[in-house]
């Protein structure tokens, strides 16, 4: 008796177009179709336009001679090299300023973040003023300020500020002695590499021993000794195969040695001060996120404040800090493209600027430039995700 | 029997209370702290008095040419003379009232949103989001109601900065919401399209996006299709910004307990209804501080349009300091621009922090 | 739901259809239908293209844009200007963002061929030179070994400098900026020893210095820089309009027609004058323009001599002599084919 009734109550099979699965499939098919259509039309439009206007296409231009000079290059470059090489010159300059910027911003950020929580009222105030000032002013303005307003009033080469006749500061840059490697220096490099390997092995061994027996081993001094001692030994053994080349005023400018050009200095200052303010905030929030009970518990166990900070607070704070740090590193790398405003020869200024203009192949050049930034961004986030996972594993 | 009268408490030692006590505990609590205090004081001594001297005591404020600047301090005359341009760009002076009216109207409309007891906030917000832009555009561009038409190439200064960031935030919010929903969708293609879109825009620098929007976009479109340069810059900014907005909204969606989703489903609401009526209202409220922070970032990023030849506040300052009559006053120009940006960004970040505190009362530690 | 999906799909299809079928309409037609010429100019170079603080553009390059507008619409004011840096200019022209580029651009083989551009003529014959501070004590470019140079990025100047120093086996440091304003600012601040650019620009930039007398232009000219208006390839009619607008200005100077006497010249019996003014001969039909096209140019902008003197010549702060830019029959290089 009850059975038919139950059947009546059973939900009637919905018409097929009302089923979620069908709708999802339909919707996605349409989405794919629409995307294909838009993509296809953009593609054909571009090809049509390029052909109609007689603009060259393809990547053949990369092997042509560039014919222009570049202010700063980490690899051997002059105007007879190819456009392809300008790409690498620009890329390396971008990587240089990003890497230096990341290191400096992290340093500033951690110092200022801790300073803001300092018990010293004055120090905490200064840190607050720093953070609130610099993170609320556009980066581009800061770059221009450092470049046009602060660095350019430096003296001209002939009136350079000199520090011990080896370091010179003028409006063309900061000149420092450059090392000249002679034959046999390779051994020093090898020794350093060996030292690094030894330190890694030592650290693993020390940790395993501590986990197994509870006995600690002070790796810091031994590591330092290895890192400094081994290369030094090799250096002495090979008969000191290195000399310093001092910058000297010849003609209009200093020659010899190494130079930090004002463009690099301004960009680096602005990037690291700006990003440092954000990192400081991340550090502060990370440290505040660790509950005070953790500190008290560590003290109750008899750990000293330094050890508490190192083994209890920081590992936990890092979990909050790292994701924010990642996005700041990404921002810094992308922001380094503002170099073009002050003439620092980074990827955007050299490759997406001069090379694009000389060859006229905007589509190829911009595509390559964007691909580079995407790759850098994705690799930084992959690395930081990996690091983050490692840190998260500490949590049991 | 003699009643025991305890001695009154002794006052705390003079070194532990009052000014001296405060100084001792906050500035000189240890050798390290004392050293830091001295160092910090020295730094302040080095930087602050000369700064005040330059910016105020020896500064020149009034005049109409560089000859008025002879005191050796800052030359605010320069900023004074160029003030209208910094604010309005190349907009014809006869039309300044239109810009003032448009922004005044916005402030007037927005005030009730901050009044706790005002009941029609939703309606008003909708008016600001949909009706106001139309009115503002009519005022800015002119061409109807007897207003003189003003080309977008003449828009500039702080006005342009505000327009770009305002449009950027208002237009990127809906796109960001759709992308965030897409990224959390269970449909694999929708999800991957959203992820690719978001990660692409987050991975490239804004400069290249603006460059593409300003000079390359017509290459991708059919010949003859032509639209305004400012509009194209806006499209670039909105696409870029919507990816960041999507991530902010996604954070809010993730913070809504699963029970809410399940409850909405149990009530028989379909996807759009459950999102529109249950999830999004809660999630968006949660992410208001995040949205304000994105807005601050966008506000600062609009300065990049000067690289593609639009003259926002910084662009106008940059032009003014290359004027041969006013060479040598770049510091004043930059400081003024920095101050304006700082006032906007700082007050917005304070607002967002206050909001955060207000919204998080439930689970404050 | 279904309705909405339909709507979305229809919109997508329509959008695509609209973007793929709108192929008709070359530059010339587009210009005529939108009612103004979108002209790419420099971000600011005194004498050639610069905007005053009201946003009004003037200059020799700007006058070419105005001449084209006068020829097409009979009104020299129907121009919209797009200020471009040297780096952006070709991309903007290639993409169709601007209809024509009149931005002291050097005519070279690469640009004419693989960049997809067409140079419509030469409105200024120039050559690259050097600007140095007087107190540097340099009298010739050959003494500049090891010097640093401020240059505008993305110009032939950048390439010529490299060539010149390589050929003479000298070393140099290039410091490139996006805008000419920035190069002059950096030069003034002493970031570089010399500023290098086209000679005409050097004079224009020199008057932007706080003290123009402190700097001097070296005598060497290291390159040929024929500067002229450019259009994108693919629309020959438009190319002709731009080219002949320039030629009309030159022919008018040669025949002594100027903005002051153009109406009186209508009475002239000289068949050459009558052909220029559209009173006889082919008139405007070959170009697809109004018969009075050249007369409109002369009325609205003036002939080449007027434009030259007003913007860069003796009537301007730049005070550049005609030199190579005099007409062919006065010892210069400016030679326009006849209008007939």
From TrEMBL, chain A:
Parts of the chain that traverse the membrane: 21-43, 87-115, 136-154, 184-205, 217-239, 259-280, 365-387
Gene Ontology, cellular component aspect: ATP-binding cassette (ABC) transporter complex
Residues annotated as domain ABC transmembrane type-1: 91-384
GO molecular function: transmembrane transporter activity
PROSITE patterns: ABC_TM1
Entry keyword Transmembrane: yes
Keyword terms: Amino-acid transport, Cell membrane, Membrane, Transmembrane, Transmembrane helix, Transport
Subcellular location: Cell inner membrane; Cell membrane
GO biological-process terms attached to the record: amino acid transport
Highest taxon listed in the record's lineage: Bacteria
SUPFAM superfamilies to which the protein is assigned, alphabetical: MetI-like
Recorded topology in the membrane: Multi-pass membrane protein
Family to which this protein belongs: Belongs to the binding-protein-dependent transport system permease family. HisMQ subfamily.
Protein name: Amino acid ABC transporter permease
Automatic annotation (TrEMBL), chain B:
A Pfam family per the record: BPD_transp_1
Protein's cellular compartments: Cell inner membrane; Cell membrane
GO terms under biological process: amino acid transport
Gene Ontology molecular function: any one: transmembrane transporter activity
Topology in membrane: Multi-pass membrane protein
Protein's UniProt keywords contain ATP-binding: no
Protein's name in the database: Amino acid ABC transporter permease
